Input
Amino acid sequence: MAARGRDRQTREQRERARAYQARVELHERQGRRRRRDNILGIVVGALVVLAAIGVQTAYFTVGPGMPQPAPSSTSTPEVPASGTPAPAPSESTAP
Output
């Protein structure tokens, strides 16, 4: 009878060891998958942001969003219409 009890114990220990090993492998696979998914998400997100920046840059520099060139006004010095200069203010004090 002692042999039967040992066989049963040995079989239960093997079953527990197999179940434990399966859980460990599942945990490792899930960790690798999560890491891969995170890296993939970061790369795709970065590509979307870079594409948005590129499209907006192209739109505003080459496309219809480009500002229309406006004629610039040049400043010309103003010359009085008459040939006589304007009188300068005097420094006298009036009481």
Remarks:
- The two ends are 139 Å apart (CA to CA).
- The mean pLDDT is 85.
- Residues 2-61 form the longest helix (60 residues).
